[in-house]
Design brief:
By secondary structure, this protein is mostly helical. The protein contains 11 helices and 2 strands. A hairpin with a 2-residue loop joins strand 1 and strand 2. Helix 10 packs antiparallel against helix 11.
Length: 335
Amino acid sequence: MTGGTIDSIGTPTLWLVTLAAVLGLLALDFVLTRRPHEVSMREALGWSAFYVALPLAFGAYVWLQYDSTRGLEYLTGYLVEKSLSVDNLFVFLLLLTAFAVPHELQQRVLLYGIVGALALRGVFIGLGAAALAAFDWVFLVFGLILLVTAVKILKNAGAGPGHDLDVNAIRSVRLVRRFMPVTPEYEGPRMFGRVKGRRALTPFALAVVAVLTIDVVFAVDSVPAVYGITGDPYLVFVTNAFALLGLRALYFVLQGALTRLVHLNYGLAVILAFIGVKLGLHWAHLHWESVPEIPTLLSLGVIVGVLALTTLTSHISTRDRSTKAVSQEESGKAG
């Protein structure tokens, strides 16, 4: 990652092959969800395994075809994106619950969200690469964004995983409702219906609008985070793409476990703050060589350590709560 230049392994051929593969996988997802159905755990686990094996295989290709530095940057960037995507899934869970999206339509809503997220992040990645090549102070801006986001996540973590989401508080939803009526019931995966003879949106369409709105916020946090790991826009894009493509299946695998990851936000806040500091040090190193930089290997170790610790403490916390609840229930029965 350097200021003033863009150093990338992304040749035109590699970009074309990657984009074709992403579009092909999205098309396959649309085919698989063309008939609404409730996703079984077996189906979700199968696709989740595929979307973990695929990026890991690609990481091995990058490592062997180029060098260990690029491979390490890719692996660390992918881990950051995957971690952030789990937090994104919790917001999606709140949205789908708030909109009372039928189980058989949930994966379709998620798929539209994934397409929107890919498009938005593609734009953000391109703008970010151009800005970093032209102005090295953008590293400081990205670092500040991550530090502010870390503070915001830390404050929100106090709300806990059980708070409700008011869909009427989402500005985009209020704006859409102001200009178009909404049908009272879902009509399958249809975006439009009729109310008193007028063309109207369905609740399904409103849910999609809400997910796309949240995607904008996620992109603002996500892209600077990966640029804190690697300055290669191709690696930034491919880590984002792999993390997003696996979201649909991962949602149904983790649906029950999401509410038990009670300390995840604390861990993500630490990770984003760490990467923010890393970006600030990189900017300083460009101007004063005596300022040390944080190596990618250390970044990977910190990220893995923080995620492992927050997962462990979340498990202990929820286990203790369950034990306490059972004890209180037994005491109540005994009384």
